[in-house]
């Protein structure tokens, strides 16, 4: 229970869904108080069995609690357990509360309600990733809100697109120079209050210049011109159809870019461009030994149940986009039927399908690791996958933030958004938001109208 004399000005009652989503949530409330109803501890105990991400999160949250309570006596429990965690400056405290024996959400609501009535001078707020629980709390006259500490930005429009326009004033002062890499480039003054960073794509439409920032210095950046894949033959015979796709192909083909993220709705060419660049660098340039492709297996409709076969056979139904694009990429202009069959066999021999469930502990060396439907991954899952990269490996994440199917994830808390924001200042990462659909006029209209 909470001693009213020790009660904080603000007290946040955490739902189980918050700790499952982010076990470190206990330490995210700085100077404010945190309260865990006993129903939450019961649910954590029930969820800890198994090898799923939910079970791992439940066990990690329990370990945090065990570490906090290892040297705590009963008096400290009523006064609040310090929650310094990784931030020594944090002054928040942790309490536990038991309202009654009602289980689950009902018990959590009962604790929040009782605390709000007992602690008259404390602002009590229920924090949950469960929309229905928040609605029940608000309908009962309680304060409730979503867990926001996992959001990389409050406004998705602020998520950078990876492309910026060079103002005329800056272009007039730009001068051609020699970059550290030995290539010809441009020194471009930075616009006022604009933060360009390495890996960002720039263009000046009047002059036709398109380039990638290689490094920055106070007041200026150094940009290298990109290769134009819209004219002539591009990687694996694929041509870019617009400026965004051309920037994407340049980042995908660039050996200096170890991480590339592609956002965009269906039909913008994310998978086709990535596979074309991957096949070119694997089969023609021998930069990669093979292509590893995986994705979050979240069904849109009813679950089809357990699938028979090996790991690769189980993943095949989830990789329809891969099969569709390989049909396009496996059609050589010459060689007839025999040539097409030989090309298809060669392509399939160098592309491996892997499940996310078996990624832990692995290290990929000289591989192109493609994460499809990455918008359905949490930040924790995204970190676990990106850190599988060994020497010579490139990671490409693709996704559409408008098609998130994972419970409790939003556009601003998706692991894909998190990776884009956290890695954008690293010189060996690049990002492009593709907006122009190139699939068909029906697909383009459906994206806008539906």
TrEMBL record:
Q: Which UniProt keywords apply?
A: ATP-binding, Nucleotide-binding
Gene Ontology cellular component list: cytosol
Q: Which Pfam family, giving just one, matches this sequence?
A: PhoH
Single GO molecular-function term? Answer: ATP binding
* Top-rank taxon, per record: Bacteria
Query: What are the residue boundaries of the PIN domain, all occurrences included?
Result: 10-135
What PANTHER family does this protein's entry cite?
Answer: PIN DOMAIN-CONTAINING PROTEIN, PROTEIN PHOH
Q: Which family does it belong to?
A: Belongs to the PhoH family. In the N-terminal section; belongs to the PINc/VapC protein family.
Q: What is this protein called?
A: PhoH-like ATPase
Q: Which organism was this protein described from?
A: Alkalispirillum mobile
